[in-house]
Structure formats: structure tokens, C-alpha cells
Amino acid sequence: MADLTSPAILLHAPQLGENIGAAARVMLNFGLTDLRLVSPRDGWPSPVAETMSAGALGQGVEVQVFDTLEAAMAGLTYAIATTARPRGLEKPVFDAVGAVSAVRGRPGKAGILFGGEKSGLPNEAVALCDAILTYPVNPDFWSLNLAQAVGVFCHQWGANEGLGGRFEGKGEGVGAPASREDLIGMFEHFEAELERAGYFYPPEKTPVMITNLRSALVRAQWTEQEVRTFRGAIKALTLGRGKARVVRED
After folding, report:
1. 40 by DSSP, 3-state: which?
2. Would you give the distance in Å from CA 104 to the centre of its chain?
3. Residue 50: how many CA atoms within 13 Å on its side-chain side?
4. Residue range 75-134, pLDDT digits in tens
5. What is the DSSP letter of 141?
6. Cβ(83)–Cβ(115) under 8 Å?
């Protein structure tokens, strides 16, 4: 059964199997599975596309091949054509964010149409679509690889769907910030050992030196774990560890 909750990706006259495979790969990365090919130059199936897809063509992405764009658009209720060139057509123009919003705001099945590598979409193909999708690329270098163009839209679709990063919410990333009490305790520990080492000299400059140290350290935005690690490092430097450990009466 067709997936009506996410748009189809249509590739019009794609030339390279590598780009078809790469497009399938990035589609599945962001949860899209409906890939429709219109007159692929080298036919279908394509061994190089299979290889480039890194398994996506066998793990979820379903490919349909059509002789005409009209046939490929069957079942769609809304379509957006991607292009880097002005077409002189009176159609709404979206960026990736706007295109995703437009697709999600309409009932039925939508499709995003991409042109072939050589010359993009012909005007007659764009004319069949409801709107135009274009990316904010460098005006002096706007040629974008087909699979990369597909990837930009797919990434925005995934972001809009609320997909988290691979490690997000799994104990990775920055830990809980250190409390001010823990931070001040670390400062006092560090400063006490610096005092023992004779660092604060001349004595009358001690307040300024402490202020400068604390100001520099605060900018690091310490986490609880980092405070514990740094205090352990201070202790190891002043008391040693293992055979190097010294005994202090204080």
C-alpha cells in the first residue's frame, strides 16, 4: 500500500545510476520510501544504483519506473518542481522549509520532482506542478548534484518530522551544568594549592590574580563531571598517585 503520509520523490530522466542510488540512500536516512523514476537513461534495475544505495533499495525504498511524467504523477494530489532557474511561470516559490510546510498542509499524496543531471527539468514538466522549490545557493555557482538536491529536501522533511540525531537522548553530549557551589568549591581548591605552591606573588596582587583566574575558568561553562575531573587532576598534581603519592599532614 502506498505511503500517503510522506511525499514521493520523482527523478525525471536521471542519467547516472550512482545518483539514483545515492538519492535512495538519503531518502531512507530521513524516512522517505517512495521513489519514482521517469525514463532513466540507463534503464532499471541498475547494479551501480544498488551499490550506491548502501542497502536502502532493499531495506525500505520502493522504486517504480515510468515512461512518462504524467504516469509517474498518478495518485498525487500536489506536486512541487525543484529548479535553480527562474521559469517565468506564475507559481508559488518555496525554499525547503516552505516546501515541507506546503506538503504537510495538504491532504493526499504529494510529490517532489527533480530534473536530470544534464539540464534539469523541462518547462513542460514544471508546468505540471503546483509550486516551485529552490534552494538559497551561491548565485555564482548554483549547479547542485541531483542526489545532493534530493538530500536537502529529505533532511528538512526529517527535521520537520522531529527525527532526533542518532545519539540524541542516549546519554551523549554535554552533561548537567555544574552548580555555582561546586564551581566555587573547585576554585577554592585550586587557589589553595596555588597558594601552597607560592603562585600568588606579590601578596598584594592576590585578589586581582584570583579574579582573573575565576573569570577565565567561568567562561568554560563547566559540567558536573568536568568539575569532578578537574578537582581530581588538582589532587593528583599536589599529592601524586600510586607510588608517587606524598603524605601531607593537612
Report:
1. coil
2. 20
3. 6
4. 999 999 998 877 778 899 999 999 999 999 888 999 999 999 888 899 999 999 999 999
5. -
6. yes
The span from the CA of 69 to the CA of 11, in Å, is: 9
**Which residue type occupies 242?**
G
Is residue 79 within 8 A of residue 129, CB to CB? The reply is yes
Please give the full DSSP string across 37-80, using - where no structure is assigned. EES-TT-SS-HHHHHHTTTGGGTT-EEEEESSHHHHTTTEEEEE
Which residues, at least 6 apart from 76, have a Cβ–Cβ distance to it below 8 Å?
8, 108, 109, 110, 111
Hey, what amino acid is at 14?
A: P
pTM: 0.72
Between the alpha carbon of residue 197 and those of residues 190, 192, 200, 222, the distances in Å are: 11, 9, 8, 25
Look at strands 131-133 and 76-82 and give their pairing.
parallel
For residue 73, pLDDT over 80 is answered with yes
Q: What is the CA radius of gyration of the chain?
A: 29
**Sheet with 109-114, edge to edge strand ranges:** 62-66, 34-38, 8-12, 109-114, 76-82, 131-133, 93-94
Distance CA 141, CA 51 (A): 29
| Residue at 140: amino acid letter | D
Q: Decide: 56 and 28 in contact? Cβ < 8 Å.
A: yes
Distance CA 122, CA 124 (A): 5
Inter-residue long-range contacts of 159-165, CB under 8 Å, 24+ positions, other chains counted: 160/97, 160/100, 160/101, 160/104, 161/30, 161/31, 163/30, 163/31
Amino acid at 203: P
